[in-house]
Amino acid sequence: MQKFKNKVALITGGTSGMGFATAQEFIKEGATVIITGRSKETVDKALSNLGSNAIGLVSNAGKLSDILDLQAQVKIHTDKLDVLFVNAGYGKFASIETADEAHFDELFSVLVKGTFFTVQQMLPIMNAGSSIILNTSFVTGFGIENFSIYSAAKSAVQSFIKTFSSECTVKKIRVNGISPGYIKTNIFNNTGLAPDQIEGAVAGIIPTLPFKRFGEPSEIAKTVAFLASEDASYIHGIEILVDGGLSNTK
Ligand SMILES: NC(=O)c1ccc[n+]([C@@H]2O[C@H](COP(=O)([O-])OP(=O)(O)OC[C@H]3O[C@@H](n4cnc5c(N)ncnc54)[C@H](OP(=O)(O)O)[C@@H]3O)[C@@H](O)[C@H]2O)c1
Q: What PANTHER family does its record include (predicted)?
């Protein structure tokens, strides 16, 4: 039996990587999925691969006016959401000395402000029994050089899991998080690194990973689907690490 028959899921940042894989997983399980992305081009490309049970919206998670308009855009297609996966984002990395205000504001806008206001704006169309999942990162557990701003932003999202879950208990909306390890997505494309630098970074990381491989986006998607499903009906306010054991080895 399909787990999400007649359910509607909104996935922010659903045009590639984990968001796209999660959209595929929910559609496979019977859901209608609404994805967001920053450009019509990326949204349309994803829709052409997801098929007729997907709807696409252009909405920038780093732009408050877009987020304030998102509920109205979603309501054109549905009165209610059963699942909200707040996933849109990317990383940029710089040392304490070289990071500037623009870098700080950019990451905090997309990851912290974006997450907060997306949840705020979607809550009115989420009913009892629905589920919110926030995407954090394994990096919050470590002191990785050049990651200070990205890790701080993801730590704020981690904090939202706790506060949002407390506040949503009365609404019977479960709130949880997923904390991915290194996952094979387009994330490095937003870092400003050249392709050969990305290749070099990936080649340097793989030997440090317990399974000697990056995680697949589908491995995140299946965990998000679990957290959103009835199988997780008593799971609330926690974060699941999907990092192939990396956090255990440091
Ligand atoms: N890959 C990893 O190793 C890793 C590990 C831990 C956590 N994460 C987190 O996982 C999430 C998903 O990233 P990914 O790894 O799947 O990378 P990805 O393949 O680059 O996907 C990122 C998605 O977010 C969207 N996006 C980025 N900025 C956006 C914005 N301002 N507004 C709306 N959509 C936006 C992108 O859409 P458009 O390009 O179409 O706008 C795309 O759909 C991010 O929050 C990232 O920080 C990644």
A: DEHYDROGENASE/REDUCTASE (SDR FAMILY) MEMBER 4, DEHYDROGENASE_REDUCTASE 4
What is the tens place of the pLDDT at every residue in 22-31?
A: 999 999 999 9
Task: Identify the domain containing residue 45 by its residue range.
Answer: 8-241
**Buried b or exposed e, range 35-63, using 16+ CB within 10 angstroms:** bbbbeeebbebbbeebeeebbbbbbbbbe
| Atom of ligand 1 at shortest range from CA of 154 | 47
Tokens for 49, please give them.
Answer: 């691969």
pLDDT of residue 191: 81
What is the enclosing helix (H) or strand (E) of 128?
Answer: strand 126-135
CA gap 247, 209 in Å, rounded: 10
* Structural domain includes residue 2: no
The residue whose C-alpha atom lies closest to atom 6 belonging to ligand 1 is 137
Q: What is the 3-state secondary structure (H, E, C) of 51-105?
A: CCCEEEEECCCCCHHHHHHHHHHHHCCCCCEEEEEECCCCCCCCCCCCCCHHHHH
| pLDDT tens by residue, 56-80 | 999 999 999 999 999 999 999 999 9
CATH number, domain containing residue 163: 3.40.50.720
Predicted TM-score of the model (pTM): 0.98
Structural domain contains residue 49? yes
Q: Domain tally for the chain? A: 1
Q: Is 90 a catalytic residue?
A: no
Distance (angstroms) between ligand 1 centre and the Cα of 178 equals 13
Does 23 map to a domain? yes
